[in-house]
């Protein structure tokens, strides 16, 4: 398969996964911004968090000035001039899909094309009229439908493998960044030290729901969510689909299945990450410091993405 084709498939799935992750991020931040703030402000801190995580806060402030709820929501969700918006992610995914129309199935193309047409209509209507929570659920639903169409209709060849590579590299990065942002906001065991157990509970619960892991947490652990339990679940539990461990396991397996010798660097790095997560305990993570550990892992996942790019997706 040509490198250009592989790149289009890979980035198509990355942009779709990114749009879903952004919708999850926006949904949880908006929900938490509506809660009583205990004198900590008017909820703008929560709404600004997705901009901080994606590194677009400065861009927003340059164009729109002080933080404003409605402008921030539009900028993050439907702003066609913001390359990091959900709108632009879906536009880029559709563009990549169109370039490889002959390598994906009709069901996949029809799903992604319909998604693009629908979001254009939503943008014309406006987020305030359509509804923020409804919009976030719509993005997640469209992503689920595309993933189901992909899994159910495409042959298990190289196109399928590169689509899956894009999905899991993007998902791994998102899980790390969301956990790091919530941990930085809450600090060490805030539920035990500052007398605001309700805030801690809803923050951790919101993170788990954003990553579709609340039911898994309730099944595995007892008691309320906290730093140790949530971190172990989202980083080291292989049976949780959006955990870092699950994503790296999938990436390493896919990389090993790709033919040729070009990908040795990416395969080696994937195997090293897989072994590190397999033999790491949550005690070791917390001893190093959760923020420091997450920062290091974000850089390693980025390095793996760069290795995939240089090994398979760049035209020689």
Short note summarizing the structure:
The chain has 17 helices and no strands. The protein has 316 residues and is mostly helical.
**Which structural class is indicated by helix and strand composition?**
mainly alpha
How would a crystallographer describe the biggest sheet? none
Give me the Rg, rounded.
Answer: 20 Å
What's the rounded overall pLDDT mean?
90
Q: Tell me the β content.
A: under 5%
Determine the fraction of residues in helical runs and give it as a percent range. Answer: over 70%
Point out poorly predicted stretches. Answer: 189-195
Question: How are helices and strands ordered from N to C?
Answer: HHHHHHHHHHHHHHHHH
Overall 3D geometry?
globular
Number of strands: 0
Termini separation (Å)?
13 Å
Number of helices: 17
How would you describe this protein?
The protein is mainly alpha-helical and 316 residues long. 77% of the residues lie in helices and 0% in strands. The protein has 17 helices and no strands. It has helices at 3-33, 44-54, 57-64, 69-77, 86-99, 106-125, 127-130, 132-153, 158-186, 190-193, 197-210, 214-220, 227-236, 244-257, 264-278, 282-288, 290-313. Helix 1 packs antiparallel against helix 8, helix 2 runs parallel beside helix 4 (69-77) and helix 9 (158-186) runs antiparallel to helix 13. The two termini are 13 Å apart.
